[in-house]
Write a structure and sequence with these properties.
The complex is a heterodimer. Chain A is mainly alpha-helical. Chain A is 78% helix and 0% strand. The radius of gyration of chain A is 24 Å and the shape is globular. In chain B, the strands form six sheets. A five-stranded mixed beta sheet of chain B has the order 15-14-16-12-17. Chain B has a four-stranded mixed beta sheet with strand order 1-10-9-8, with helices on one face. A four-stranded antiparallel beta sheet of chain B has the order 4-5-7-6, with helices on one face. The longest helix of chain B is centred in the C-terminal third of the chain and has 18 residues. In chain B, 53% of the residues are buried. Classes of the chains: A mainly alpha, B alpha+beta. At the A-B interface, α2, α7, α10 and α11 of A face β10, α7 and α13 of B.
């Protein structure tokens, strides 16, 4: 059943991906400025602008370029960077682990913050701790992560002369320093998601805790821990998992600024530079990758429902 | 240390440098070793002849040598650009169009394939110059356009024959934007010099590793031709593109030099940080001197209304340069004369010495309106200003203030914002209909600021100036080898240009250069030559 369900979902994902691919192909070309002009700004042969445009295949009709790009993308070829002339896929492969690690740590931080706080806030509804925690959640939602990142970098430097690691340290060079340098940006990225998850956890748990079977659990004399965690949280967490799936694009979007601020050489920083340079194949490749990841993650989230709630069948 | 703006402006760079002379350091024995940490930039590519980017040019000053270079060290006052031999042990000028350089013997390339530490020869120099002049895409090739031929009569002699006398020839060779000597084998191996692996020179450091967007590392070249130098073993470069991150790193002592060109801190950041730095980095050394990045409004002087001198005078009088300095640079900037900026103190003439033309640089909106009316524009005229932001708030503020001042006298100028590439390939090279605005390249010689911008047909003659009087002066100064006489010719040209105001010259910044107290025997100066300035420096920690 699950296999058929997944196959159906994959089939539905195809038109979504096609629409998304057309958008990611079109949008970079709508940005003012031109890759060829930017490239020629670095050299003197401005007279060769048409020649270079033809050489890069940018002189052909828009739809021809799109169809050719799509056909190549379907075969796993995302083209070459206009600037480095290296395959986009291999450029991505170098940078993907950094962004993947950052997104993973951010998601884990979000869950580690959100679940316990959400549970405490629900279990102590309308208490002082509930108000404080809910206020913190609103603050977490309101504060832009780039602002928080800037403060967390600059203030410790001013107060204590302390600064996070500068320059990226690879895992094989120094595993501890490598993880340490990703923790702070991951935490910052995770905070906004944590706030949203915490609010939902609290709300759902409060609803579940009002159910009859929970009252039965209390009547049976179970401990608070058993009632809230085992019977309450497990049933409250399904919408939270759904929200977690929708938070991924936000986390990935946040990495664009965070990687830039912390100097992490991930996909998002690559995208940032590519946008500045109008490197169309790179912009298209990265966006297509992000869209595909989001579709895939949503699929995984749907599949997870059955694991969390045995009543759900496909 | 504290310097009053008045002192710096009155005394030029000399006072700043003199006050900071680390006399005790000069007396100490240099110490070998240590790692210098810098924030520099990620080069767009590593081929000097395929980019005009300062990011690449600066990176090469650590690894490559030139025939001649600018003298560096704490004894050199910023803005003073004295030429000395680099690869050239000596040189002669048998006549006005011939230069003969005698190369140092025993100069070794970095010990990397394909050169593997072989000795540098005159043929390498000949090949490099030929490549510089002929390779497609070299926007700086014009700097050696005077060269007719270059020969290598023997292993250690290089002979240049020029097409015509060019008194600035050595200045061009010394400029890090021009020729850094490369080996033919390396070009043959890599096709061009864009990959980082092809960064192989004879300079004091070798490029050891490069991680795009992260940083690069230089290690000492053990066979460098100056005995004992460089003293610093490693130079760790971080590519740090976020200002908050750079600021925090600098406060925490992770960079030994300021993070902006040429080892400084932007004025606005400096004013915010200086008190904190006094406690966090009490040993920090500071020097302030005028920067050589000029800002101006260029205009189509070959067309109405800018062909009318009165309109050009009105535009210049419309700018309140003092207010611009106060607003943009917190009171610490320079009101540059036309042509050569004040930073090149050996060649530039301050505004108050411009003679009759000085009045064009005084803020006088009433007179500006009168001049516009006299020129037939009592209600002003519309105009568009082609520009790009350079991604820098200070340029945006500057452009908006220029628009405001023009508007005050009736010139309804609208900003036409271009992408950087579009701007550079069009307006920067004079392809616009009305006006253009922006910062200009920080050259190190008077000629680039004058000949390039004012000689008919030159690529950077943005205002389309075609004035036989100016053209004659510019050619004459190029042919005058006597430095004193050439200086007088340049001053004469500046006085004339002040009257003609072919460009509306705006204000420029003062550099605030900072470096760690542990870095000894270092003297700041204009230009990209970080490697040259650090070659004889050492770390006392």
């Amino acid at each position: 059943m699950l296999k058929r369900y997944l196959a159906r979902r994959l089939l539905v994902a195809v038109p979504s991906l096609l629409i998304a691919s057309a958008i990611v192909f079109m949008l970079p070309r709508l940005i003012p400025g031109d890759a060829v002009q930017l490239m020629l700004a670095e050299t003197s042969y401005a007279k060769d602008i048409d020649e270079l445009r033809a050489k890069l295949g940018l002189d052909r009709p828009f739809h021809v370029q799109y169809v050719e790009w799509l056909a190549r993308a379907a075969r796993g070829d995302l083209g070459e960077s206009l600037w480095t002339r290296r395959p986009v896929l291999s450029e991505l492969a170098q940078r993907l682990p950094v962004t993947g690690e950052l997104a993973l740590y951010a998601t884990v931080s979000a869950l580690l913050i959100a679940l316990p706080i959400g549970v405490v806030a629900a279990a102590r509804q309308d208490s002082l701790s509930d108000y404080v925690l809910r206020s913190l959640a609103i603050l977490g939602l309101s504060v832009p992560n780039f602002w928080l990142a800037t403060l967390l970098i600059v203030l410790p430097a001013i107060w204590w002369g302390w600064r996070p690691v500068t320059g990226f340290v690879e895992f094989r060079q120094d595993p501890v320093a490598h993880v340490a340098q990703i923790l702070l940006p991951a935490l910052i990225l995770g905070i906004a998601s944590a706030a949203a998850l915490m609010r939902l956890t609290r709300g759902m748990l409060l609803e579940v805790l009002r159910q009859d079977y929970v009252r039965t659990a209390w009547a049976k004399g179970l401990t608070e821990r058993a009632v809230v965690i085992k019977h309450g949280l497990r049933n409250a967490v399904i919408p939270v998992i759904t929200l977690l799936g929708t938070q991924l694009p936000l986390i990935l979007g946040g990495t664009v600024i965070i990687e830039q601020i912390f100097g992490l050489p991930g996909v998002s920083r690559f995208l940032f530079d590519a946008i500045n340079q109008r490197d169309y194949p790179v912009i298209q490749g990265v966006n297509l990758l992000v869209v595909s990841t989001v579709v895939l993650v949503n699929l995984v989230v749907d599949a997870l429902y059955a694991v969390l709630d045995p009543r759900i069948r496909y | 240390m504290e310097l009053r703006r008045r002192d710096v402006l009155a005394g030029g760079a000399t006072l700043a440098a003199t006050t900071l002379l680390p006399r005790t350091a000069s007396a100490q024995t240099p110490r070998r070793g240590g790692t210098l940490a810098l924030r520099l930039w990620d080069p767009p590519n590593w081929d000097l002849d395929q980019t005009i980017s300062y990011k690449t040019h600066i990176a090469h000053t650590f690894t490559h040598s030139r025939l001649v270079k600018h003298k560096a060290g704490p004894g050199v006052a910023p803005g003073s650009l004295v030429i000395e031999g680099d690869l050239a042990e000596s040189w002669t000028q048998p006549n006005e169009t011939t230069y003969v350089f005698k190369l140092r013997r025993g100069v070794r390339w970095h010990n990397k394939p394909p050169v593997n530490g072989r000795e540098l020869t005159a043929e390498d120099v000949r090949y490099t110059v030929e490549r510089f002049l002929t390779v497609k895409g070299n926007a700086n090739a014009y700097m050696l356009r005077s060269v007719d031929k270059v020969e290598a009569p023997d292993k250690y002699t290089v002979k240049f024959t020029l097409k015509e006398p060019f008194a600035w020839f050595l200045d061009m060779l010394a400029n890090p934007m021009a020729v850094a000597i490369v080996a033919k084998e390396v070009v043959d191996k890599y096709g061009d010099l864009k990959p980082w692996e092809s960064v192989i020179g004879t300079g004091p450091w070798m490029l050891d590793s490069y991680r795009p967007n992260i940083g690069y590392t230089y290690v000492r070249h053990p066979a460098y031709f100056v005995a004992g130098q460089p003293y610093i073993d490693r130079v760790e470069v971080t590519v740090d593109e976020d200002n908050a991150s750079r600021t925090a790193s600098f406060l925490a002592g992770k960079y030994d030099l300021g993070w902006e060109l040429p080892g400084g801190i932007a004025r606005s950041d400096w004013l915010q940080l200086r008190d904190t730095l006094k406690t966090k980095r009490p040993n920090l050394r500071v020097a302030e001197f005028p920067g050589n990045v000029g800002n101006h409004v260029s205009m189509r002087v070959d067309q109405k209304p800018f062909s009318d001198l009165r309109v050009r005078q009105a535009m210049s009088m419309a700018l309140d340069r003092k207010a611009l300095i106060d607003t943009l640079y917190e009171g610490s900037g320079v009101a540059n004369p036309p042509g050569v900026p004040l930073a090149l103190k050996d060649w530039s003439l301050p505004v108050d010495q411009l003679g009759d033309g000085a009045k064009n640089f005084a803020y006088d909106p009433k007179e500006a309106k009168r001049l516009l009316a006299a020129a037939g524009y009592p209600n002003g005229f519309p105009a568009t200003i082609c520009w790009t932001t350079y991604g820098t708030p200070i340029v945006v503020d500057h452009a908006q203030l220029v628009v405001k001042y023009f508007k005050d006298v009736g010139i309804d100028a609208k900003l036409d914002t271009k992408e950087y590439g579009a701007y550079i390939s069009t307006c920067f090279y004079g392809k616009f209909d009305s006006l253009a605005f922006g910062p200009q390249t920080p050259f190190l010689d008077g000629d680039n600021y004058l000949f390039g911008y004012y000689y008919p047909g030159e690529m950077k003659n943005q205002s389309h100036v075609n004035d036989p009087v100016v053209a004659d002066m510019l050619v004459r100064q190029r042919r005058t080898f006597d430095v004193g006489k050439r200086r007088e010719l340049i001053h004469e040209a500046q006085r004339y240009l002040a009257k003609q105001v072919y460009y509306t010259t705006s204000v420029g910044t003062m550099y605030t250069v900072v470096w760690d107290g542990a870095l000894k025997n270092h003297g700041p100066n204009l230009g990209y030559d970080y490697g040259g300035r650090l070659m004889a420096a050492w770390l006392d920690r």
